[in-house]
Amino acid sequence: MQENGIRKKTTVGFVSVTDPFRDKKAWSGTIFRLCRSIVEAGFDVRWVRVNVPNFKYRFRKLCNKIRFGQYSKFIQSASYWKLCAESVVKSDLDGCDCLFFPSNAQMTRYADFGLPVINFSDATFAIMLDYYWFRQKNGMRSQGNACEEYALRHSDVIIRASDWAAESVIRDYGGDASRVHVLEFGANLDDRDIRESAPWTGGPLNILFSGVDWSRKGGAVAVDTVRLLRERGYDARLVVVGPRQIPEECDGLDYVDYLGFLDKGSQDDYRKYVDAVSGSHLFILPSKAECAGIVFCEASAYGLPSFAYDTGGVGNYVIDGVNGYRLPLSSGHEGFAATIERCILSGELPSLHQGCLRIYSEKLNWNVWGEKFREILASHCIV
Fold it and tell me: Within 13 A of 170's CA, how many CA atoms are on the CB side?
């Protein structure tokens, strides 16, 4: 940007309900990491506040539930996006050169901010239907798609966290391919805490599972996978992070180390999580619905090969034969156990370990995200 012949930093308005400079919980810490990456890429960042009044939020959510049923996704409704647009603190827009919307660009349907729009997300409304979100009535489907389509058509830059999501922008909404880009997430951990774990060479095989939603993330499959490996003679152990209470499948098992829900905003919990990852050898996530997965970035950062289902945006984060393997959705715990055992018997684990470190260094980190973000904005003449 030029001002009176003097080059100045581009100021990016970060449009968010929560403070992107301080809130390390929002979107599992991703809001904070996105903001920091943009700053470290050389931009000035200004928080454009979305001060949604609590009473209006609760009232409109109730109305939406009455109209579209108890399963309706209020935060994807026209009513919610209109409320967000009404709640933007207009004075925060002063001095901004462009606006960055992290998964909330749909509000642009109800307000003309008069600035270039950078639309970032890990999915689209269309691919989430009957994948993450079920029992949505036709009215909700129409509203959600209409808001998504408007936002995409009126965005200057569209960034998605996987090829799966980027392809939906073009296929489902007719998005302009020249404006669509893919930027993978990074690890939501401090760089100083990322250290290479020791690759497995024998003895206890520590397998990490990390996911709050035990059922959707395939926790039972992870337990059965470890049980089957033990039956085949391996001293396999499962480290469980995420569920707020011990799952029934884990209760009483001496080879399961249940750590529960760990809040990265708490220093004690954060240290426990770092220790759990760095002390593990493999990562397993048999989730049948996954947009991307920050946990895959974190596993690769420490050198833990990942084993997951081939679904959603996982293909950008787990590369077969490089940093792990993706299995068909028809696979059960037998398939996961067989794949892990094959990697052990073939001596492939050390090369997968190195592949993890390489792919983390090349693309699954926030420094690379920031560099590519700057390049994208420059290619669209926004910098």
Answer: 14
For position 282, which CATH number holds?
3.40.50.2000
Residue-wise pLDDT tens digits, 246-298: 999 999 999 999 999 999 889 999 999 999 999 999 999 999 999 998 999 99
Find the helix or strand (DSSP H, E) in which 181 lies. strand 180-182
21 and 29 in contact (C-beta within 8 Å)?
Answer: no
How confident is residue 6, by pLDDT bands cut at 50, 70 and 90?
Answer: very low
- Are both 285 and 195 inside the same structural domain? yes
CB contact at 8 A, 157 and 377: yes
The helix/strand/coil state of 338 is helix
- In the structure encoding, which two tokens stand for residue 25, read together? 């919980």
Q: Which domain holds residue 306?
A: 191-362
Largest CA distance in the chain: 73
**How many domains are contained in the chain?**
2
For the record, the structure tokens of 347 come out as 């001596």
Write the CA distances from 120 to 14, 104, 372, 373, integer angstroms: 11, 8, 13, 11
Same-domain status, 156 and 211 = no
